[in-house]
From TrEMBL:
The keyword Isomerase applies. It is an enzyme of class 5 (isomerase). Keywords: Isomerase. Its EC number is 5.3.1.8. This is Mannose-6-phosphate isomerase. One of its GO terms (molecular function) is mannose-1-phosphate guanylyltransferase (GTP) activity. The keyword Transcription does not apply. One of its GO terms (biological process) is polysaccharide metabolic process. Residues 18-123 form the Mannose-6-phosphate isomerase type II C-terminal domain. The lineage of its organism: Bacteria, Pseudomonadati, Thermodesulfobacteriota, Syntrophia, Syntrophales. InterPro entries: Man6P_isomerase-2_C (IPR001538), Mannose-6P_isomerase_type2 (IPR051161), RmlC-like_jellyroll (IPR014710), RmlC_Cupin_sf (IPR011051).
Length: 128
C-alpha cells in the first residue's frame, strides 16, 4: 500500500495538478467548463487569505482535521463530515487551529475558475 501511495503522489506532482502555497497545497481532482474540484490541505496553524470571488461560488466539505471558517466576518468551527457553502462575492477564509493537517474538498461552480478571480482583503503572506 505504501508503494501505491508514493506512486500516486509522484503522478500528482509530475502532472502539475498539485500546487504548493505557504499555507499548504492543493490538488486539482477535476477541471471542466462547468466546475473545478480541488483537494486542499492546510498545514497546522496556517490559514488562507480572507478573500472573495466574483465569478464562482464554492462548497467546502471537510475530510479530516479541524478548521475555523470565516464567512462574512462570522466564524464557524468545522470537523470531518461537515460542509459550508460560500456564495459568489462572500468574504471567506479557512484556518487550521489544530496540530494535524486539515483536508477538505472544494467544489467550484460558476462561469470562471481561474486563480486570478480572487480579491484579497487580508493575507498572512503579503499577497494583498
Amino acid at each position: 500500500m505504501q508503494d501505491y501511495i508514493r506512486g500516486y503522489e509522484m503522478i500528482i506532482q509530475q502532472s502539475g495538478l498539485e500546487d504548493h502555497r505557504p499555507w499548504g497545497f492543493f490538488e486539482i481532482l477535476s477541471n471542466a467548463p462547468d466546475h473545478k474540484v480541488k483537494r486542499i490541505t492546510v498545514y497546522p496553524g496556517q490559514r488562507l487569505s480572507y478573500q472573495r470571488h466574483f465569478k464562482r461560488c464554492e462548497h467546502w466539505y471537510m475530510i479530516s482535521g479541524q478548521a475555523v471558517v470565516t464567512l462574512n466576518d462570522q466564524d464557524m468551527a468545522l470537523t470531518s463530515g461537515q460542509a459550508v457553502d460560500l456564495p459568489v462575492q462572500a468574504w471567506h477564509r479557512i484556518w487550521n487551529p489544530g496540530l494535524e493537517n486539515t483536508v477538505f474538498i472544494e467544489v467550484q461552480t460558476g462561469e470562471y475558475f481561474g486563480e486570478d478571480d480572487i480579491e484579497r482583503l487580508e493575507d498572512d503572506y503579503g499577497r494583498v
